[in-house]
Amino acid sequence: MVDTPTADTPREPDITHVNPASGETWFGHPRQLARLFTTEMWERFGYYGMRALLTLYLTKHFVFGDREATGLYGGYTALVYLTPLVGGYLADQYLGSKRAVKFGAIIMAMGYLLLCFGGETAKPYATIANQRYEIQVVEQADSEVRYLVDGANKLKIKGNDDGTVSLLAADGAVARTVEKGGFESGAERSSFYVTIMLLALCMISVGNGFFKPNISTMVGELYAQGDKRRDA
After folding, report:
1. What does pTM read for this prediction?
2. 51 sits in which H/E element
């Protein structure tokens, strides 16, 4: 016989699938989720902030070339997704999820702190026929113009389609044309601060390896088996 609810005897809604945690909740979830959520939020903030700024930091501050900067960026992002394989294994076998997350967070924080120490901006230069010249970079609207300093003269650098480089005088006339392959760019940068930067990136990647796979495990352990909130 079907039990039909009436106004006098209303039926309570079926909430057996919710399986609420004992005690107070946070938006219907265990309160521990708030701490895990904010911790993961700042980790994601740091990662996507690095994705947005790392290449600019490498090319503008350390004056790395596009190939070097892209290689470092690619290596960093690859390690971020490879190190969790090792971090998850070590957590399962030795550390446990909680210790692994704490250890990873500390390592990442130290890595981000080290990135604050970049030293002075690298000084770009160009080498032409074994002669080194200072390069000055001038920002103009959405682009930048590079000048080669030759004594008292500042010559605008213009690359050509055929691989040669034209050095333009102030009036726009071509003062000198450098043959293809004869213009080599470089930068004077502190090897100490480059090492600090590379160490910081390694620490962030290693810390992420301990952090990323284990905090998800901790979130899953907040709910009973079959609780639909695990899919939220």
Report:
1. 0.77
2. helix 32-56
